[in-house]
Amino acid sequence: MNISDDEVPLNRSARAKSSVIKDEDSDMDMGDKPPSASSVSDDDYDEEAPIKKRAASVSPAARKKSKAILDDDDFDDVPLSQTTQALKPKVTKKEPKAKAPKKEPKDTLKKEPKDTLKKEPKAKAAPKVKKEVKEVKKEPKAKDDGTPAPEDNDTYKWWESNDLDGEIKWTTLEHSGVIFPPPYKALPKRVKLLYNGQPVTLPPAAEEVAGFFGALVETDHGKNPVFQQNFFKDFQEVLKEAGGCDIEITDFAKMDFSKMFAYFEEKREEKKTTTSAEKKKIKEEKDTLEAPYKTCLLDGRKEFVGNFRVEPPGLFRGRGAHPKTGKLKKRVQPEDIVLNLGKEAPVPKPPRGHKWGEIRHDNTVAWLAMWRENVLGGVKYVRFAANSSLKGISDFKKFEKARELKLHIEKVRVDYRQKLKSDLMLERQMAVCTYLIDVFALRAGGEKTDEEADTVGCCSLRFEHVSLKPPNTVVFDFLGKDSIRYYQEVEVDQQVFKNLRIFKKAPKKPGDDLFDRVDPSILNKHLQNYMPGLTAKVFRTYNATKVMQDQLNLIPNEGSVNEKLVAFNAANRTVAILCNHQRTIPKTHEAGVAKIQEKIQEMVWQKIRLKKLMLVKDLTLKQKRKGYFEEINDLTKEDERAVHKYVIAKEIEKVQKKFEKDNIKLKEAKQPLLSKEELKTKLDKIRELKKEYTKEASSGKPIDLHPNDTVEKLEARVEKLEERIKTTCLQLKDKEDNSQVALGTSKLNYIDPRLTVMFSRKFNVPIEKLFTKTLRDKFDWAIQSADEHWTF
DNA sequence: CATTTCACTTAGAACTCTACCA
DNA sequence: TGGTAGAGTTCTAAGTGAAATG
Question: Which residues in A36-71 are b (16+ Cβ under 10 Å) and which e?
Answer without folding.
Answer: eebbbbbbbbbbbbebbbebbeeeeeebeebbeebb
